[in-house]
């Protein structure tokens, strides 16, 4: 596969079970992909308002896994990741929690995600820039 250009557009993957969570986190860890997770709930207006922003953010990065998880649908993962408020955005590297942003603040989220991804991808490529 190396050498082939992938023209896939990054998108947000909905996590609907513990098995789905484990599969995607394992995949991202094996591929050394940074992960950005939006913990939300269908009844939470700020979470819903953040969905288009999160989709747009995901479309800007190819080698990053963007996940969304409804805390009421997958309570076990929300509890394990210590999600106390929504929306919460979790940044993971190698399956490990790196940073957390609580609340619907697009500017702060974009800044933190940009910095997280730049540092993750720089580390992954040993300092080379695309």
From TrEMBL:
Keywords: Disulfide bond, Electron transport, Redox-active center, Transport
CDD domains referenced in this protein's UniProt entry, alphabetically: TRX_family
Pfam families on file: Thioredoxin
Alphabetical list of InterPro entries matching this protein: Thioredoxin-like_sf (IPR036249), Thioredoxin_domain (IPR013766), Thioredoxin_H-type-like (IPR050620)
Entries under SUPFAM superfamilies matching the protein: Thioredoxin-like
Boundaries of every Thioredoxin domain copy: 1-130
Name of the molecule in the record: Thioredoxin-like protein CXXS1
Originating organism: Cicer arietinum (Chickpea)
């Amino acid at each position: 596969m190396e050498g082939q250009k992938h023209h896939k557009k990054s998108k947000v993957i909905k996590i609907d079970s513990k098995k789905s969570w484990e599969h995607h986190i394992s995949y991202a860890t094996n591929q050394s992909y940074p992960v950005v997770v939006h913990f939300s709930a269908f009844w939470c207006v700020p979470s819903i308002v953040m969905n288009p922003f999160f989709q747009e953010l995901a479309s800007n990065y190819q080698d990053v896994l963007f996940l969304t998880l409804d805390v009421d649908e997958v309570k076990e993962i929300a509890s394990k990741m210590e999600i106390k408020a929504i929306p919460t955005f979790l940044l993971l590297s190698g399956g490990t929690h790196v940073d957390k942003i609580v609340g619907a603040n697009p500017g702060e989220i974009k800044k933190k995600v940009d910095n997280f991804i730049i540092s993750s991808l720089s580390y992954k490529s040993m300092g080379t820039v695309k």
